[in-house]
């Protein structure tokens, strides 16, 4: 066996090993892509399913504003009752 033949065989072996490694890398890259697409779909579903939770913040803010308005109405009603009560008591005494 000559050096040329030995060098040629080593070259073929190196090329085959590199080709096998490249095929393995391509397989793993396709697998990762497939899993990433599945994960992306799941994240989209999670986003859709949790939007109502984020809307609760807005609902709570509106509920707080309604409560403040109700308290203001209650305060105004109490002031009216006091005013009417004082006027009514004042006429009863006289």
Quaternary status: single chain
Number of H- or I-type helical stretches: 1
Supply the helix-strand structural class.
Answer: mainly alpha
Estimate what percentage of residues fall within beta strands. under 5%
| Sheet with the most strands, sense and barrel status | none
- Radius of gyration from the CA trace? 40 Å
What is the overall shape?
A: rod-shaped
Q: Report the count of strand segments.
A: 0
Q: How much helix, percentage-wise, in residues? A: over 70%
User: What is the typical, i.e. mean, pLDDT?
Assistant: 90
Order of helices and strands: H
Q: How far apart are the termini?
A: 136 Å
Poorly predicted runs of 5 or more residues: none
Features:
single chain; 94 residues; mainly alpha; 1 helix; 97% helix; rod-shaped
Describe the 3D structure.
It is a single chain. By secondary structure, the protein is mostly helical. 97% of the residues lie in helices and 0% in strands. The chain has one helix at 3-93. The protein starts with a helix and ends with a helix. The mean pLDDT is 90.
Short structural summary:
The protein is mostly helical. The protein is built from one helix and no strands.
Q: What's the layout of helices and strands?
A:
Elements: H1 3-93
